[in-house]
């Protein structure tokens, strides 16, 4: 029934697309959907690499059946136990009761916890190899990219890296599977948004994984989300390298909350000053309208952040407060920081933004601006100077 994409010699894409889920992890919007990628190697032994979300198990299992053409499944490699990739394991084991499940010790702890499976397991350690006929597989641990059990599988025969969630991106695969067969325009920003929201906290583990894998010749890069990469592998690795180093591009993200427009006018003034002083990459986010996932994507993308906040019940404006917690959780490093705020009768926001910048160890640029009630000429000029100082710093 299914005409499956052969991405290398007897290596088939058997993943599925999800265009129904509104929020990934019940938090992050999916305007372009998302794919759950799985791969089947048909050799002297048959090997499946990861499964898919259980919601799509019927389609997934039919694809495997068609690709196997009457053969049984010998091995399942579990690179990552997150349920969007391991959700179909129990059903797979029911269909193929003799399948050997390959993973590391932490994998098996989670396999027991999620599925109650504790038999038919083949434990692998760093650098272990498995010959399945023509294809020679090896295994490398990549803990905390972005779960502790994560590993990757390398096919030395066809130079394929099955990389779990590493190098993944939001966005379903709309017909094509390979990068060379599709328009990639929207995937690049979705890759940054995926990294910022899903992997963002784990820059150091990503760097360790990149260093570990740098000696491998990789002709095909198979993540569990997004396109199969061939031609654009250097671009994908560059994005993950830059983001995991927290190396922002030249540009400024202005994030603000505003109840009645006064804080927004301060943000507009700062943005106009940045532009006047030569900054071209300026992104503005009203936290009451922009979803946090897009704000975080831009904060990871650009090196300067300016945050504006009104005082609310002697605290930060709630949506700004929520965003700051998300930034703290991801431990974003090496940002230039400016801040401003407003109040009606008692100011607290600017003081709290100062404490946030100190906690993040960000470099404060310019003089913070605090405005009481409506925007006055002196505060307008102070906002202009804040924009100028940031422009000169970057």
Automatic annotation (TrEMBL):
It comes from the Bacteria. Residues 252-394 form the Flavodoxin-like domain. Transmembrane segments: none annotated. Its cofactor is FMN. PANTHER family: ANAEROBIC NITRIC OXIDE REDUCTASE FLAVORUBREDOXIN (PTHR43717:SF1). In the N-terminal section; belongs to the zinc metallo-hydrolase group 3 family. This is FprA family A-type flavoprotein. It comes from Parabacteroides absconsus. The lineage of its organism: Bacteria, Pseudomonadati, Bacteroidota, Bacteroidia, Bacteroidales.
